[in-house]
Each structure stands twice: as structure tokens, then as C-alpha cells.
Automatic annotation (TrEMBL):
Main location as per UniProt: cytoplasm
A UniProt-annotated Pfam family: LRR_9
UniProt cross-references to InterPro entries, sorted A to Z: Leu-rich_rpt, LRR_dom_sf
Subcellular location: Cytoplasm
Alphabetized UniProt keyword annotations: Cytoplasm, Leucine-rich repeat, Repeat
Protein name: Leucine-rich repeat-containing protein 51
Any single Gene Ontology cellular-component annotation: cytoplasm
């Protein structure tokens, strides 16, 4: 016997309803690696115990990430035609020499698209990174960044879509995620978690409350100074 549910009349779905459902269920990619538009595989210098961008680096003649049609090629000047660098799980504490190093190994440094500096000992985000304006993916998780204001330096990276900062002391700051999303409104993913529409709205409200709190602090400081005089 046919169940009651299956006896109910059904109507053809309106195209608008289908489109609406499609919009609601559409997911923004959180792991950008799978859709990364490689012109060549990344230059991978992970797990090398490297501590300085100024020192001698190990031979880069290594097997690149497997890809059926793309290989890691060098130009006649000995530079690599890649737009991705991986320095994860090393011993870097600062960015000294970073820009020069990238210029030495990449044929087109300004086209750097993906940079992985996760699991190092970086305390800051250096402004040198702004020289690479095409960056879309930046991994900085597992470092020693402790000041939330370091995020402000990334606001000039207009194409940045995916950023990771979890595993840094900065993650413990109150309102951390909303602060980052306010400073970097074009992010599609933060700490491998997609940015939702509600978070974007909350980030705007967070900014307003933050400004109000800062104004209160300024007024209190003025009152204190006046009282001291």
C-alpha cells in the first residue's frame, strides 16, 4: 500500500525556488589547495630546519608536487616559473631577507599567489609581504604572532582570500575573528573556516562598538590629564 506521503499531490518546482535552494546550499571553498590555479607546482622547502632567508638554501632540484601535465621548470637564468612557496615547519623568527630570496628564485616574484609560512616562530607580519600584491592564500598558523594589530598590515593585499592565524597567541584576543574580518573584508576563509554572511554583519557591528570603546578611553585619558593639571 502506498504511504500517505506518496499520495500527496506534487507540483513542479518554480525555477526561482530551485535557484534559491542552489544559492543556499552553495559552499565557498575552504581548502583552496584543491582549486589552486597552478601554472607550476609549489616550490616546497618545508621541514628543512631553515632559520634565515639570508643563508644558503638546500638544493631546489627536488621532485615537485605530482601533476599529470605541469612540472617545475627553470628559466635560462635559473629561476623557477612558480607562483607558490612553502616554508612550513621550519625555524624562521623574522622576515629579514625574504623579499630578496623570493626575487632570487622566482622568475616573476610579483605574481606570488600562495605563501605558506605555517609552523615557524614568526613574531610579526612584516610589511615586505605587501610587495607581493597578488597574494590570495597566506598561511601563518602555528607561529608566535601576539599582537592583533599585526593583521592591519594585510589590509593592502586586495586579492587576499584565505588567511590562517590559528595557533598564534593573537587567536586568544577577545573578538579576534571579527576584528580580522573587519580589517580584511574580502576574505572568503579564515583559519580554514569559510566566512559567513552573518559574520560579515557582526564584524561591522563589532567595528562600531570598538570605535565607541576607543572614544571612551580617549575621554577618560583627557579627564585624567586635566585632573593632574
Amino acid at each position: 500500500m502506498t504511504s500517505f506521503y506518496h499520495q500527496l499531490p506534487r507540483f513542479p518546482e518554480d525555477d526561482a525556488i530551485k535557484d534559491g535552494r542552489r544559492q543556499r546550499t552553495k559552499r565557498v571553498a575552504v581548502n583552496f589547495d584543491s582549486t589552486f590555479p597552478y601554472p607550476a607546482p609549489p616550490i616546497d622547502l618545508s621541514f628543512r630546519n631553515l632559520s634565515s632567508f639570508e643563508g644558503k638554501f638546500p638544493d631546489l632540484e627536488e621532485k615537485p608536487r605530482h601533476h599529470p601535465t605541469k612540472i617545475l621548470c627553470k628559466t635560462h637564468k635559473g629561476k623557477y616559473e612558480s607562483t607558490a612557496l612553502k616554508f612550513s615547519n621550519n625555524l624562521f623568527e623574522n622576515w629579514i631577507g625574504f623579499e630578496q630570496f623570493v626575487g632570487k628564485i622566482l622568475h616573476n616574484p610579483s605574481a606570488l599567489y600562495w605563501l605558506d609560512l605555517s609552523f615557524n616562530f614568526l613574531y610579526t607580519i612584516d610589511r615586505e609581504i605587501l610587495k607581493f600584491s597578488q597574494l590570495k592564500i597566506l598561511y601563518l598558523h602555528g607561529n608566535a604572532i601576539h599582537s592583533i594589530s599585526e593583521v592591519d598590515k594585510l589590509s593592502n593585499l586586495d586579492y587576499l582570500q584565505s588567511l590562517t592565524l590559528h595557533g598564534n597567541a593573537v587567536e586568544e584576543e577577545k573578538g579576534y575573528r571579527l576584528y580580522v574580518l573587519k580589517k580584511l573584508p574580502k576574505l572568503r576563509a579564515l583559519d580554514f573556516s569559510r566566512v559567513t554572511r552573518s559574520e560579515t554583519v557582526s564584524a561591522d557591528l563589532f567595528s562600531v562598538s570598538l570605535m565607541a570603546a576607543n572614544n571612551r578611553r580617549r575621554k577618560e585619558k583627557r579627564k585624567t590629564r586635566s585632573a593632574d593639571m
